[in-house]
Amino acid sequence: MNRYLQLISRTDPAALVAWLALAVVGLATIFSCSHGAAGGAEGVKLTVSPATFTNQLLWLGLGLLGAATVLAIPLRFFETFAFVLYGLALAALVAVFLIGPERAGTHRWLVLGPLSLQPSEVAKVAVIFALARFLAAGNGRHPFLTVLGVLGLCLPPFLLVLKEPDLGTALVFLAMGVPMMFFAGVRGTFLLALASPFLSGMVMFYGQEVLSSTWPWALYFIGLLAALFFSRLYMFQSLLLVTANLAVGLGVPLLWERLKPYQQDRILTFFKPQEGDLLGTGYQVFQSKVAIGSGGILGKGWLEGTQKGLAFLPERHTDFIFSVVGEELGLWGTLMVVGLFAVLVARSLRIATQAKSSFAGLLAVGVGTYFFFQSFVNISITLGLLPVTGLPLPL
Question: What is the pLDDT of residue 39?
Fold first, then answer.
């Protein structure tokens, strides 16, 4: 008992309070989602089962129990077995396709008795551990080897989750690597140069699928060659960047063809909203913006949301739960949620700078990156600032 008290005293109070506050807001919002129409309107079918709230409460309890267990385990255990945990996570992702049930045309779940688990969520944690272990070994001093190693750790779970298919979750694995590499010592200018293949893919997609022309990508590539010529990079570095930009740019059409039709429709609806179907692919975002906008400054009040209550807002207890917060708690409620996530990220970075070991610092950066990326993407989707990817809001 005394050991636990000592460990708890070493936790960050602000991060713990923010975490618990987000969990409570999540519980309150899910409870609201499972209690039908505002004002107790009759004849409205409850598409969100009241059991959803009970399940969330159960998982929160299991999460707290897991946190208490992990708190008692020395950090060096996770550092020692980081790659073992990573291998087990990959095995679970492969098992999804072998023994996991198919739900709505996807393979994302493993059923273990009464429990249904998404291995991709466990894999996020395992990848953070593996990246922290790899980068803590001093690999940041060798930028190209660092990038190859990080890609070697991030691409397998990325490709497996992409095949489920779950594009939003797959992108999380790639996003976590960049800040961790920067913290490990890789120069920011080098990382910016590495972002050029991503830009190449975006330009190729926008030109081919939105403008129906490859000229934008051709102009981009000419500009890239000019920038590399005047930057006076080493020949090997220049050739590697050119090859990466070519591979990603030319690979985008192939990746696009492998996406499911509903994924393609969501992305195209974002880039060409004027051509979107408000009753089809654009329905979710349209109803989300209506819900958030109708909440105003103070909101309609807890349990009083009409977009939520009358089931106009799809996936209101999962992907679009932030929209329910906006409708019922208004601007102040959404700012509170964003502020709590900001506290989690800021405290994670503060812990990283004060950590006594490289592994611990990198671990904190990885956790902070996860919360930032996933919350940023989810909230942006509900506001119509990003295409719908099905990425849930943490906690």
Answer: 43
